[in-house]
Amino acid sequence: MSSKQFFKKYVFGQVICLALLASFIYSPLASAERIKELASIQGIRQNQLIGYGIVVGLDGTGDQSPVTVQGITNMLTQMGINTPAGANLQAKNVAGVVVTANLPSFAQPGQTLDITVSSVGAAKSLRGGTLLMTPLKGADGQVYAMAQGNLLVGGAGAAAAGSTTTVNHLSAGRISAGATVERAVNMMVGEGSVITLELKDSDFSVAALVVAEVNKKFGEGTASAKNSRVINVRAPVDYDQRVSFLGELESVRIQAKPQAAKVVLNARTGSIVMNQAVTLKPCAISHGNLSVVVSATNEISQPGALSGGETAGVTNAQVSIESKPGLVVSLPNSALLSDVVNALNSIGATPQDLLAILQAIKVSGSLNAELEII
């Protein structure tokens, strides 16, 4: 089998997999979501931690920056070792790093966290290094965890015929369970007998559905919507009963209605994502060497005299895309944005072309969806 045939079969297989995945996502069973996937409970959140530390034990790949040298000097001084005045420390095996971590809700002292270690200087690699004890602070300046451990830089490298090829990113790595929680964050779940749900996306219809399903399960008056995002829920005051109640509340399934049509375009990579079939109204666009025309024609469907049917209007859409050197791609009886994007890709349109054309279609009012550019 040739490489070209293999590539075609591979692409075909990927398309089939995506089609099966899409059919599952849009099935009635999959559209029922739990409240825990649609909303969060006010007061339950994670907190970001950050700290500056030193990685030692590198194989001559350190940064040797003045800040790193000063950090080593301060560390040695705290250990009772005074460096001679004017001494030139050769810090080839040392690098200054920033350590970050997320402190989960209700984390208690003694629990461990995964941490990410990133070089802040010109270190060539952190592979094989050891992070020295580093305090991790929150936004309030308090120390909530201490980090230390051997750094793992993932990926692989290969060398052949005197040349070295590096696949991974060497200036950052992780340490599993590399930090220990030293201070707990006090979190209050609701005030008195009321807790607050916050929808991840502001939507009046979803808020109404959540209120209806919660009241259906726990009784009328249990939930009430404050606005399109915030929902107040009456809960038991006893902590043990409240935990059980919240577990049941998060498991309530909501048959959410289809979201508004939306098109997301990544301006850097040219990736386009649509959450559903997006249609186009009649329009005509000329962009560089490309010409896009979306037209619609109204036809009358007249049934037979004895058929008992009714006269009906039928709208047929036709999309034509032309590249001025002479290449024309026609899509009869179709006005779907996905077909237009595929046709533009087939004639070599660049991500910048797609961005300009979609923006123009949106401004003209011919795109029946929200356009978001990231």
UniProtKB/TrEMBL annotation:
Pfam families linked? FlgI (PF02119)
Q: Which GO terms describe its molecular function?
A: structural molecule activity
Report which superkingdom the organism of origin falls in.
Bacteria
Query: Which InterPro entries does its entry note?
Result: Flag_FlgI (IPR001782)
GO BP terms, alphabetized? bacterial-type flagellum-dependent cell motility
Record localization: Bacterial flagellum basal body
Keywords of this entry = Bacterial flagellum, Cell projection, Cilium, Flagellum, Signal
Which Gene Ontology cellular component terms are annotated?
bacterial-type flagellum basal body, distal rod, P ring; outer membrane-bounded periplasmic space
* Annotated function: Assembles around the rod to form the L-ring and probably protects the motor/basal body from shearing forces during rotation.
UniProt subunit comment: The basal body constitutes a major portion of the flagellar organelle and consists of four rings (L,P,S, and M) mounted on a central rod.
* Family designation: Belongs to the FlgI family.
This protein is called what? Flagellar P-ring protein
Identify the gene encoding this protein: flgI
